[in-house]
Amino acid sequence: MRTSISSIFWLPIYLQSNPIARWHICQGSINSISFSTDGTYLATVGRDGYLRVFDYSKEQLICGGKSYYGALLCCAWSSDGKYILTGGEDDLVQVWSMEDWKVVAWGEGHNSWVSGVAFDSYWSSPTSDVTGENVMYHFSSVGQV
Questions:
Q1: Do residues 132 and 102 make contact, with C-beta atoms less than 8 angstroms apart?
Q2: Where in the sequence is the domain holding 78, given as residue range(s)?
Q3: Contact indicator for 25, 9 with CB cutoff of 8 Å
Q4: 94: which residues sit within 8 A by CB, 6+ positions away?
Q5: Tell me, what CATH number does 83's domain have?
Q6: Number of structural domains, the chain?
Q7: Which of 38, 74, 80, 100 has the most neighbouring CB atoms within 10 Å?
Q8: Does residue 34 lie in a domain region?
Q9: Is residue 21 domain-resident?
Q10: pTM to 2 decimal places
């Protein structure tokens, strides 16, 4: 999947207070960024409604997707790096799969913009299925009033 990136916003990367890279990310503002637990990937969400996932060390866009409607305001990674949560102006929480590079679930129920999402990093699944097919995740979201 390739996503065209034309941008006004720059994301400067610093090493001991000296910039070593600048990335064009998107037009308009970036509302949230989040690194995967192992630091391999960087997720960004912005005013344009796109989630973009970059391979951080290669400075390369690897996948992304668009919100149902409006801007995306927040994002968070699962502790195993398999999923990304996003929330935004469409009042939905979206669960994005890094394996499938698409939305695999929507969470409805907010009456206003979703302003924060987080996986529960302390909770572990009650099943220990070695195939990984019965793994469960806890996450929370908050909305604006």
A1: no
A2: 29-143
A3: yes
A4: 67, 68, 85, 86, 87, 103, 105, 106, 107
A5: 2.130.10.10
A6: 1
A7: 74
A8: yes
A9: no
A10: 0.77
Which residues in the chain belong to E strands, given as ranges? 10-15, 18-24, 30-35, 41-46, 50-55, 60-66, 72-77, 83-88, 93-97, 102-107, 114-119, 139-143
72 part of a folded domain: yes
Report the sign of the C-alpha dihedral through residues 123, 79, 38, 133, in that order: positive
Which burial class, exposed, middle or buried, applies to 80 when counting CB atoms under 10 A from its CB (0-12, 13-18, 19+)? Answer: middle
In this structure, is residue 69 part of a structural domain?
yes
pLDDT tens profile 40-50: 999 999 999 99
Q: Is 91:74 a contact under the CB 8 Å cutoff? A: no
